[in-house]
Design a protein that fits this description.
By secondary structure, the protein is mainly alpha-helical. It has one domain. Helix content is 52%, strand content 0%. It is built from 8 helices and no strands. α3 crosses α7, α4 packs across α5 and α5 crosses α6.
């Protein structure tokens, strides 16, 4: 087995939150995708960007407010309760913590924890941060790197 096959599916697909295939298309999504169930992205930061875009929609347009509401929408099956507990343990949030998309630290912490639950290993926080930044400003990491000294201050 090669190193790529040893990775969890979400990491192999550069889709750390395991976004399911749908008619929605995201920047950085690859059109050729042999995975029948999940989207495939060019790089992990593009996968995180897509996840942040979905979460922004949940919070700003669908009226979801809390960790529990967001995760129940993200994972609407029997494992949602376990998912919520794991995310709360990893973040220190309660299930009733009210989320704000504009709270950079809170969102990055949430998505890093969700990625860890999805893949069974810690998220690359650098990729998570770039995904958040890309979701706010558009463009790729390479395009944005030249526009700012440190986008995370």
């Amino acid at each position: 087995m090669d190193n790529q096959q040893a990775l969890p599916r979400g990491l192999r697909n550069n889709n750390p939150l395991n976004i399911r295939r749908s008619a929605d298309t995201f920047q950085g999504e690859l059109q050729y995708n042999p995975d029948p169930d999940f989207k495939l992205f060019r790089t992990a930061d593009w996968g995180y960007r897509a996840a942040f875009c979905i979460l922004r929609t949940y919070l700003l347009h669908n009226g979801l407010k809390t960790v529990s509401e967001v995760i129940n929408r993200w994972c609407p099956d029997a494992t949602a309760g376990q998912y919520i507990k794991a995310v709360c343990l990893l973040t220190g949030f309660s299930s009733t913590t009210v989320l704000s998309f504009s709270d950079k630290d809170q969102m990055i912490k949430l998505v890093a924890a969700m990625s860890e639950v999805e893949n069974g290993r810690k998220a690359n926080i650098y990729d998570v941060r770039w995904g958040y930044y890309m979701s706010l400003h558009g463009g790729s990491r390479r395009q944005l790197e030249g526009k700012t000294q440190d986008p995370f201050l």
